[in-house]
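On clarity, I found the account of how folds are encoded harder to follow than it need be. What matters is that the chain and its backbone geometry are given together, residue for residue. I therefore recommend that a typical entry be quoted early in the introduction. An entry of this sort, consisting of the sequence and the corresponding backbone structure tokens, reads as follows:
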Amino acid sequence: MCNIEGNVPRVRCKSCGKVFRVSAPWAFDSISRYTHRFEMQLIRLAKEMPISAVSREMRVDDSTVWTILDRYVQRRMESHNLEHVHTYYVDEKAMRKGHDYLSTFLDQDHRVIFVGEGNSSDVIHDFMRYLETHGGSVDNIRHVSMDMSGGFKKGNAECFPDAKVTFDRFHVVRHMTDAVNEVRRREYSNLLRAQEEERKALKGQRFLLLRNHKDLGDSERDSIKSLMSMFPDLGRTYIQKESLRATWGMEHKYDARDFLTRWIKESIDTGIKELIRVANTIERHMDGILNWYESRISNGVMEGFNNVLQAIKGHARGYHSFERYRTMIYLRSSGIC
């Protein structure tokens, strides 16, 4: 290996008097200590390897690797052009145990366009500012896909009032699966110790009850029938969970509205508190749920992308800061790095 050393010239500006270092032809910019080829090799490795492995391979410390990656990602994101964006998907992701969240935004082509800290309405405001400073426009946004969290709803109403919100069907169904699980736990806790047969039948059936009925085998469907006959509240809640899926299978939006209205009334009439709570939630968000018939978008895209985020985090066994996690998300998933 041949090392060539040389002093980089410095010049003084005649107008302001500041001293600047001349950019070397082999470097990214005037502040880079390494060659262009060295930094690009490091960046290529960082897209595939943990940072500790990149550090060992390139024989530099971790802080140097992060400095190079941060500067590279910042340069690339500064040239981000969002004038094409007319639809965005947003979802939250826990950074670590507790309540530290980040929110990721994808465009209609399912590419990452923004990563914000937190999951409140402020993160929507941050996205709006980023969008407008990178060639996009609030007026261009026609459709939004999100869950029913209050922060996202509030922020979108303030920043994108003309965009049609589609509440994610997977999150809607998740409310029902949560209700089924809550009823199952309640039924189990109400059983007496002497009711050994019922306790044994109900124990360990959580995932069976949460699965889509059409995906079950014959023996599994027999188990469901047995549980429904033994536990009436659980049976009624399970039936409502499965019938709710028909909301997205109608030919017209008007048919779906009639169906959902009947579904809400039937759920409330059962008197089951867990089911009534879900029915009231769906009634408040009915327009956004039925907007799917116009937009045909859902956050299933985000659910898949959350697996990517988990892989990125798992690759490094977690990140110490939001900024570093964001750098890796942009590096690996933005499509422009």
The beta strands are 10-12, 19-21, 87-94, 101-107, 112-117, 143-146, 164-167. The CA atoms of residues 140 and 264 lie 35 Å apart.
